[in-house]
Amino acid sequence: MTVIEETTPLTVRDAAPADTDAVVEHVPEPLRPRRIGGVTRTGVLSLCGAAASGLCVTVLLFGQLAPFSGALGFTVTAYLVFLAIYAVLTGLDEDGQAVRDRVMTVVLWTAATLLFSGLFMVVGFTAWRGREALPHANFFTQDMQAAGPLDPLTHGGIAHAMLGTLTMITIALAITVPLGLACAVYLNQIPGRFSRFVRTIVEAMTALPSIVAGLMVYATWILGLGMQKSGLAAGFAISVMMLPIVIRASDVVLRLVPGNLTEAAEALGAPRWRTVWHVVLPTARSGLATAVILGTARGIGETSPVLLTAGFTTALNMNATSGPMVSLPLAVFNFVKSPEPAYIARGFGAAAVLMALVLVLFVIARVIGGRGPGHQTKRQARRTARASRQDVRRFEDLHAPGLSLFETPGEPHPAGYAPSAPATGETD
After folding, report:
1. Region of residue 99 (left: phi > 0; alpha: psi -120 to 50; beta: else)
2. Are the beta carbons of 236 and 175 closer than 8 angstroms?
3. In angstroms, rounded to a whole number, what is the distance separating the alpha carbons of residues 50 and 62?
4. Which of 255, 298, 289 is nearest to 368 (CA)?
5. 317-358 tens-digit pLDDT
6. How many CA atoms lie within 13 A of 14 on its CB side?
């Protein structure tokens, strides 16, 4: 029986033969951080090889090995095979974490490419089909009252639809923005059973069909109260569609405001309304602008509520409270369903103008709410500096000479009392 009294770790020097003069020592290589971004030669070759291999394997599957067919199935199969081969090729040089990172990067780039390709196709196709109507100045300055289906593009335009859309969306924004932001602040600042009930109703209203909103306004405003179809009624119907979108998005944004900001404001003695007005809303200004944009994009493209509540007309109507009024989506629908090429060109031109109008509203909202927390305009900076100077003067008045710590300003001094001069730090 052999007893080992002391064991020592076996090194490369101990394992070397006795007659060897050289001493071999194992020096571990320093750990190097993995490269996260950037393009490498190995990555490009792996990507190209996986794409070519995926295409070849899919061609064999659809042409020889399996009874598959269809362009969509071919594309999906080729992409899945490409991802599998790319993961195998990346795994030859990288660890599992790097493989997952590379594969997810390819998936996200593919999704972004598909998204921007679809957006470019929609915008480009609409602008291309409306290229015949857009160059004419009368397309933006005239209405369709004196133009017929057989008239050329040099007669008639969409001025009545543009004015109608701007009128309706202005009325809807005037109703939706204050109500939506106030409701979102209520849901965020006053939790309780009623706020949970309101949040449930708002979430349910986000899936409300637009025709139901139009029917509700038609039944109450037109049939019940006896009012006539007008742009005002259409603005009411559009606001019903926009309101839950603005409330839901604003509620989510206000929840992201850090709680320590509101706690710090309340710890300084600020009331709740002042905290919300000066801390919560300015911090979430950019997100609130995005919420308004989402609601505007939902309401500006509605057609059925406008048709039920505002009617249809080919003349320019400047009065939002009386007479029928048409919007750009409704004009597009009326133009495109016609078999005449000139009307179809006007329809695609009106759709391009509608997209440009949405873009302009988006830019305006970004300018208004695009500044981050803490960033002020020159006017806001001057107002803040003026308020700070007023606070400094107020503090100096409160700590003026002649007031002691135990004396209330405005009370008469006791008899025989003379205020002492302020201490200067010198002794006589």
Report:
1. alpha
2. yes
3. 18
4. 289
5. 888 888 889 999 988 988 888 888 888 999 999 999 999 988
6. 5
